[in-house]
Amino acid sequence: MRHLLRHRAFRLLLSARLLGHTGDGLLQGGLVGYSLFSPEKQATAWGIAAAFALIGLPYSVFGPFAGLLVDRIPRRRVIAVGNATRAGLAIATSICVVRDASYALLLSLVLVALAVNRLQLTAHAAAIACTVNPHERATANAMVPTLGSATSAIATVCAPLLAHIWSSGANESANATGHVIQVSCVVWVAASLVIMRVSATVLGPHADEHETTAVAPTDARTNSLSDSLSEQPSSSRPVRAASWREVWLGFTTLRRVGSARRAITVLALHRALFGFTLLLTIMHARSQLTATSSASSLALVATVGGLAAAGTALGALVAPRCAHRIGPIRTAAYGLGLAGTVLPLGWWLGMNVAAVWLYIAAPFIGVTYAAIRVGSDTVVQSVIADNMRGRVFSVYDIIMNTSLVVGLAAAAGILNRPGMGLLTCAVLVTITAGFHSRSERLLSESERAALANTR
């Protein structure tokens, strides 16, 4: 990590991201009263899956266009304006909380804030590769998301504590929550100011960068489109000229670049497996949820989540070294193979034998996720040209959200027979991991050269 901090642009980008995650955590922690475990709002398995789908819906609809913005407008501006927008939404949300506005209005504001957050993360993911050297990408991809998640978790825990300190009675709880959300507004404004200290051209997009055949044409229409994107700087073309063809180019680019497509598929399978086990854990805890055991049920899920987070931190330390030694593709493949064997077995034992098996298996969620994420992000950043990364990472994010919901829905559909579902997941994930570990032989020469620079 120390050698990454020598890059000034990376330091500022990391600072802005951590401030953004702090604001996210304060907002989520401030709205903890709308938690999944509120006694009066217990949900069915399908309700939980639908809630996750609703959270991901705004960005899934506008994600491709958001990716186009990341490829056409200086990413520094995207991040700065995004944080400023979230600050404004935080003010509106705090007013709704204090004045006890309708739940629909509050939900709408939070969903818009989440959509802007996903745009922010897309811009950050595309910009990381512009702030470090190619051989440092694996380490950056491991440390930045881990530090961001840890910062968000700490802020989420601190938010209710701040609300408790500021509230002088039951009638003041809404005002205290509003104050916490207003603090998130201040943090997001600070993030905007920090990112503006980066030079406008450093974070991209760079229209003259061609790392591989990612933007190579496959037909006449794509040829003219790619040429137009390459010949003019992204920031000089008005956003209103965006067309459906340009948005669709993110999907076609991913389809043509096999290494990036396979990397995202591996991570998507892990997300689906995570969604599957997440729903099983929640429903297992809820089966014990009564007036006297709600705290212990919540503690079960919180402990599993904490152990998974610890595993992510451990994976962030180990995964970059694995990526440098055996390459990002095999790192992701081995992570998926480990997840496909340990997680289904651990969850089956945890639900049928003893809960301690859940605690044993939980860290492997984080370790394997870190390995797969580091490997997949490094591959995508290396083989996709900079003036296409925004659109590709938008598709990447949409696939991640969709995969999580698919895993949740699959678990809800076979809730009465979870063992068969876990076995199916184990077989599918393990076979895919085995194929991916041998996929280096399918790389083109340009992809092989781009990935060689990451080791």
Description of the structure:
- The protein has 455 residues and is an all-alpha fold.
- It has 2 domains: 1-197, Up-down Bundle (Growth Hormone, Chain: A), CATH 1.20.1250.20; 247-455, Growth Hormone, Chain: A (Up-down Bundle), CATH 1.20.1250.
- The protein is built from 15 helices and no strands.
- The protein has helices spanning 8-30, 45-72, 75-98, 103-131, 137-166, 173-195, 220-231, 244-256, 258-286, 294-326, 328-352, 356-383, 389-413, 418-437, 445-452.
- Helix 4 (103-131) packs across helix 13.
- The longest helix has 33 residues, at 294-326.
- The chain is globular and about 65 Å long.
- Residues 35-42 and 209-242 have low confidence and may be disordered.
